[in-house]
Each structure stands twice: as C-alpha cells, then as structure tokens.
C-alpha cells in the first residue's frame, strides 16, 4: 500500500529514527553548517557581481536588473542543488557532519530544498524565536522541518 499522507511523523516510521545517536549534537552542527553556508553564498555572490556587471554592459544595462534578485537567486540555487542533490546536504552541512532526510524515506528534491530554505528565512524574518523550536521538539526539529516532513540527522560516512 503506497504512502499517501502529506506529512510524516516519527510514529509512522518507528524503526528508522529511534536511535538517539542520529540526533546527538545536531543543533550545534546545524548552527555551524549555517555559518559555513552563509560564507559560501557570500563567496558565490562576490563571484557573480562582476559577471553581472559584464552581462549588463553586453545587454546595454538590462543585465544589471539581476542585481535586485542576486542574493535570493544565488542562495536558493545553492540550497536547491546541494540539498536536492545526491548528498542531501549543503557544503556546510557536509562539513558539520549532518544531512537532511525525509521521514517517508524519499529523497529531497530541488523544489523541497528550496521551500525548506524559504520557510527557514520566513520564520527568521517573521518571528526569530520560532528558530528555538529544536530546544523543545522531538528529534531537534525546526518548525519548517515539521511542515515538510524532514529531519536533520548525523551523517553516517
């Protein structure tokens, strides 16, 4: 029987996430991963700025309109390709030794990764204390993890 629920929970898959070692140090590792990824996005933006400048010259100024959407475009592409890719983790997450997984066992695709990032930034922009949810929720999950049926676990490399 195929899985049809839109939001999975630990009770749906009790054998998969009952090992406490999967979640040991995940909160701290997520903070470290965020800082590394923030630096990675900044580096990518620094690389993109002169490229857009040259594109603007080639297009008689029209390319310079990309500056208005540069930061979200770079950040969401970075997250989508890295989390939606084979490693299921950004470079910062890989360096911190964590990855994202779905409760239902399916792979995280590009769109889900982008939505996860957008929900993170929305929760940070709207009400920063929402990011304190991992202090209280099972498996140290954030609210945007809960909304998408995702959990951050330690990598098993």
TrEMBL record:
Q: Where in the cell is it found?
A: Cell membrane
Could you tell me the superkingdom of the organism this chain comes from? Bacteria
Q: Which InterPro entries match?
A: Pra-immunoreactive (IPR051791), RDD (IPR010432)
Keywords on record: Cell membrane, Membrane, Transmembrane, Transmembrane helix
Kindly list the residue ranges recorded as spanning the membrane. Answer: 31-58, 64-87, 108-137
Query: Which Pfam family, just one, is annotated for this protein?
Result: RDD
Bilayer topology:
Multi-pass membrane protein
PANTHER family on file: PROLINE-RICH ANTIGEN HOMOLOG (PTHR36115:SF6), PROLINE-RICH ANTIGEN HOMOLOG-RELATED (PTHR36115)
Instruction: Please give the name of this protein.
Output: RDD family protein
Which species is this record about?
A: Oricola thermophila
Taxonomic classification, please?
Bacteria, Pseudomonadati, Pseudomonadota, Alphaproteobacteria, Hyphomicrobiales
């Amino acid at each position: 029987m195929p899985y049809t629920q839109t939001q999975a929970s630990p009770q749906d898959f009790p054998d998969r996430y009952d090992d406490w070692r999967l979640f040991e140090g995940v909160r701290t590792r997520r903070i470290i991963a965020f800082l590394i990824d923030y630096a990675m996005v900044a580096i990518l933006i620094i690389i993109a700025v002169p490229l857009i400048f040259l594109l603007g010259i080639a297009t008689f100024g029209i390319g310079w309109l990309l500056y208005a959407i540069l930061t979200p475009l770079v950040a969401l592409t970075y997250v989508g390709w890295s989390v939606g890719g084979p490693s299921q983790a950004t470079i910062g997450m890989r360096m911190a030794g964590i990855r994202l997984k779905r409760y239902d066992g399916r792979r995280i695709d590009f769109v889900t990764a982008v939505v996860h990032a957008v929900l993170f930034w929305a929760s940070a922009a709207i009400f920063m204390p929402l990011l304190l949810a991992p202090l209280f929720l099972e498996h140290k999950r954030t609210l945007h993890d809960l909304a998408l049926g995702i959990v951050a676990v330690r990598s098993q490399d």
